[in-house]
Amino acid sequence: MGNPTPQDFVNMRVAIEEAEESLRTGGIPIGAALFRGTELLGKGHNQRVQLENPILHGETDCLQNVGRIGSYRGTTMYSTLMPCFMCGGTIVQFRIPRLVVGEARSFPGSGEFMESHGVEVVDLGMEKCSSMMSRFIEEHPQLWAEDIGEL
């Protein structure tokens, strides 16, 4: 695991706002944002429920909103939760060099997989992200099980 920078906490606010937006609109509270330094390239949130799209996770919605940028060199993906293997595979495929997560306690996801493919993974261990997810999981266990493929 890599070390966080002060800017990581600033940039993570965008992903948290996206997670809160997903929750407000009836979805799973996972948000993501892609930055190159301090420049926001795009953001998104989990919309599986809202759009009935099984692959529209926070990270994939973010990348769809970023659009084609050619190279992802020098970018950092911010996600409120450790990505699943689908999203982790996308991060590896696009060679996004760095991932910063709000928390990995609720879901261990694909951190080791991404690291084994050269992605620097940083876990901020943020209570705000953890409490938002644990509350959601407690209130919507079946929806959560569906999201992580455990139904």
Structure in words:
The mean pLDDT is 96. The chain has a five-stranded mixed beta sheet with strand order 2-1-3-4-5. Helix 4 links the parallel strand 4 and strand 5. It contains six helices and five strands. It has 151 residues and is of the alpha/beta class. Helix 5 packs across helix 6. It is globular, with a radius of gyration of 14 Å. 42% of the residues lie in helices and 17% in strands.
Topology (SSEs and partners):
Layout lengths: L5 H19 L6 E6 L2 E7 L12 H9 L8 E5 L5 H9 L4 E4 L9 H6 L3 E4 L3 H13 L1 H7 L4
Parallel strand pairs: 3-4, 4-5
Antiparallel strand pairs: 1-2, 1-3
Helix pairs in contact: 5-6
How far the N terminus sits from the C terminus, by CA atoms, comes to 30 Å
Count of helices?
Answer: 6
Biggest sheet statistics? 5 strands, mixed
Share in helix: 40-55%
Report the principal-axis shape.
globular
SSE topology string: HEEHEHEHEHH
Radius of gyration: 14 Å
Instruction: Estimate what percentage of residues fall within beta strands.
Output: 15-25%
Mean pLDDT value: 96
Count the beta strands: 5
Strands side by side in the biggest sheet: 2-1-3-4-5
Give the helix/strand class.
alpha/beta
Task: List unreliable stretches of 5+ residues.
Answer: none
